[in-house]
């Protein structure tokens, strides 16, 4: 672009805030489409608390780790399909229609889950919700990105990320609100039907993406919308740039024919964009964020907090920090830049995961011992593995819980860190333990280091949310040429959900196989690799008009000196 890339500094953030006064129409578009992000966040977050009570109602879920993972991960499997179909649907029928279809799937899934008589029906409902999540994950940020002025595009797409984390925070509040209500988890899962209905109503009164309209030959409609979005002094330049971009893409489309995977990877700008976009989405998941969000109450219990309500309350803090981090990202995404923000975020994530690794290792190796006297105080309630052990003196709480899913630990009534009882995990022994004013543990053990685990989780979220929580979605919404944007967005969204599925489906199994500590260490090693990837492969798109991102990708593949501004000369010769 002549004159270089426009500076995206603190004034961009102020301009975004000023939209409520200058141009409320843009904010209305962003908030209405962003409800899809709210639903996305709610449906991915609510299961973490609901799972605690689903285990109480469905005993097959309580006894089988794979069934718990299936309830969480089948939504992700649905999201993979939703994202794959959503890419085609976004290009074929438009961003608005895709959002409406996602809402319908949210509604159907919520109703099925709320009425589920068994774990199998519950899983079916989770699949429907997953389909909606997959479509919304790409349609909402894409719609917002294409309906936003260039200068505040990053901040408004970050608004979608904020609504995702806000939905997760809301899910924890709803979980807490219904802990004492009859049906507990049914209410938790069914509430998602309400915002879906609200968005369906709002989207009927909103226009289609102006860029999609231009692409489909409906330029007059697109121009009318652009005149509402941009200031009068900017709108003509934007219309001309968009017309040129669409004309060029249509010319390329005529010469290259239908879009195929081969075509995508033969096109230099698309290939480089996919490397960056897909890579960011993969690393976003493999540093472990959704294990924290999906299983945070379980992780809190692993840290030594036994009560379901306590675990939910402490997890609410985690969700609140996640939402707060998303607010920070709205400020920093256009001030600091996408690449630098991602790097700062990943460095903090590495430090946080090191703290979590050390803390959980201490928790695992310093758990309370088993008291033979305390154990046999409960008639016919002894854990079978402990009863058959040759040397019971070496048993501690962690060994008791790992012996079998059928075993639990009843802590000493006066001091949880004193030797307790290793018992069979039945409703009878659990009630007997509680009747003695003791705490009952089946996930983790009492520990004096439990508070450090909460600090580690909090730091992890604070570092992750403003950077890696937002940057991948922003970059993927703006890095692809218009002709390929729907397809590439679908590929990137499918990538994130496949990665999410792998991590979520294996987390509990990993914690049982190698321990919680080494699981977090594994995530930390992935975060180090992610830092190297961002340094080498991710371009800076801060302040670059969407029509010029393609040119930037054609000119350079890598930019190591992310802290330096890109000069016009460097742009011209291709850089590093």
Automatic annotation (TrEMBL):
Q: Which Pfam families match?
A: Sugar_tr (PF00083)
- Subcellular location(s) per record: Membrane
The protein's matches in InterPro entries, at most eight in alphabetical order, are given as: MFS_dom, MFS_sugar_transport-like, MFS_trans_sf, Myo-inositol_Transporter, Sugar/inositol_transpt, Sugar_transporter_CS
Segments traversing the membrane: 29-54, 66-85, 97-117, 123-144, 156-178, 184-206, 274-296, 311-334, 341-360, 449-475, 487-508, 514-538
Keywords associated with the record: Membrane, Symport, Transmembrane, Transmembrane helix, Transport
Q: What Gene Ontology terms describe what this protein does at the molecular function level?
A: myo-inositol:proton symporter activity
**The organism of origin for this protein:** Lupinus luteus (European yellow lupine)
What is the designated name of this protein? Major facilitator superfamily (MFS) profile domain-containing protein
Q: How does it sit in the membrane?
A: Multi-pass membrane protein
NCBIfam families, per this entry?
Answer: SP
Question: Which residue intervals define the domain Major facilitator superfamily (MFS) profile in the entry?
Answer: 29-542
Highest taxon of source? Eukaryota
Q: Which PANTHER family match?
A: INOSITOL TRANSPORTER 2-RELATED (PTHR48020:SF38), PROTON MYO-INOSITOL COTRANSPORTER (PTHR48020)
The family this protein is said to belong to: Belongs to the major facilitator superfamily. Sugar transporter (TC 2.A.1.1) family.
Coiled coil stretches, renumbered:
none
Task: List the record's Gene Ontology CC terms alphabetically.
Answer: plasma membrane
């Amino acid at each position: 672009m002549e004159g270089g890339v426009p500076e995206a500094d603190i004034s961009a953030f102020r301009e975004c805030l000023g939209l409520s006064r200058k141009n409320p129409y843009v904010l209305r578009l962003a908030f209405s489409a962003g409800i899809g992000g709210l639903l996305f966040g709610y449906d991915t977050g609510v299961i973490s608390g609901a799972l605690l009570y689903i285990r109480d109602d469905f005993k097959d879920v309580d006894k089988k780790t794979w069934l718990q993972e299936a309830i969480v991960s089948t939504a992700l499997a649905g999201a993979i399909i939703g994202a794959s179909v959503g890419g085609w649907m976004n290009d074929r029928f438009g961003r608005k229609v895709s959002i409406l279809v996602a809402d319908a799937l949210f509604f159907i899934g919520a109703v099925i889950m709320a009425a589920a008589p068994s774990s199998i029906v519950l899983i079916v409902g989770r699949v429907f919700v997953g389909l909606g999540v997959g479509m919304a994950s790409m349609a909402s940020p894409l719609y917002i990105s294409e309906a936003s002025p260039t200068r505040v595009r990053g901040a408004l797409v970050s608004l979608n990320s904020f609504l995702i984390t806000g939905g997760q925070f809301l899910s924890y509040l709803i979980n807490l609100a219904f802990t004492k209500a009859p049906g507990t988890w049914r209410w938790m899962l069914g509430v998602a039907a309400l915002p879906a209905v609200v968005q369906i109503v709002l989207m009927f009164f909103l226009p289609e993406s102006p860029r999609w309209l231009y692409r489909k030959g409906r330029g007059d409609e697109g121009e009318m919308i652009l005149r509402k979005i941009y200031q009068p002094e900017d709108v003509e330049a934007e219309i001309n740039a968009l017309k040129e971009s669409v004309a060029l893409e249509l010319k390329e489309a005529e010469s290259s024919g239908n879009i195929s995977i081969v075509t995508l990877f033969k096109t230099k700008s698309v290939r480089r964009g996919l490397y960056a976009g897909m890579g960011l989405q993969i690393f976003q998941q493999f540093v472990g964020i959704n294990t924290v969000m999906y299983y945070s109450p379980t992780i809190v219990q692993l840290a030594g907090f036994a009560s379901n309500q306590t675990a939910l309350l402490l997890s609410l803090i985690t969700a609140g920090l996640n939402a707060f981090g998303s607010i920070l990202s709205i400020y920093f995404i256009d001030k600091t830049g996408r690449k630098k923000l991602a790097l700062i975020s990943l460095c903090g994530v590495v430090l946080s995961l090191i703290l979590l690794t050390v803390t959980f290792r201490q928790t695992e190796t310093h758990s309370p011992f088993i008291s033979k006297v305390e154990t046999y105080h409960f008639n016919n309630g002894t854990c079978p593995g402990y009863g058959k052990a040759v040397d019971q003196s070496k048993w501690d709480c962690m060994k008791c819980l790992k012996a079998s899913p059928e075993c639990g630990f009843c802590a000493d009534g006066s001091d949880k860190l004193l030797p307790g009882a290793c018992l069979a995990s039945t409703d009878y022994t659990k009630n007997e333990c509680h009747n003695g004013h003791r705490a009952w543990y089946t996930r983790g053990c009492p520990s004096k280091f439990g508070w450090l685990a909460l600090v580690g989780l909090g730091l992890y979220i604070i570092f992750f949310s403003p950077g890696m929580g937002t940057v991948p979605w922003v970059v993927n919404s703006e890095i692809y040429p218009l002709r390929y944007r729907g397809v590439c967005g679908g590929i990137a969204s499918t990538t994130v959900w496949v990665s999410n599925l792998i991590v979520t489906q294996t987390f509990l199994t990993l914690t049982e196989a190698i321990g919680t500590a080494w699981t977090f260490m594994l995530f930390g090693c992935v975060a180090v690799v992610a830092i190297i990837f961002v340094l080498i492969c991710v371009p800076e798109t801060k302040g670059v008009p969407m029509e010029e991102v393609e040119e930037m990708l054609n000119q350079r593949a890598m930019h190591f000196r992310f802290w330096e501004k890109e000069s016009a000369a460097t742009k011209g010769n291709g850089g590093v």
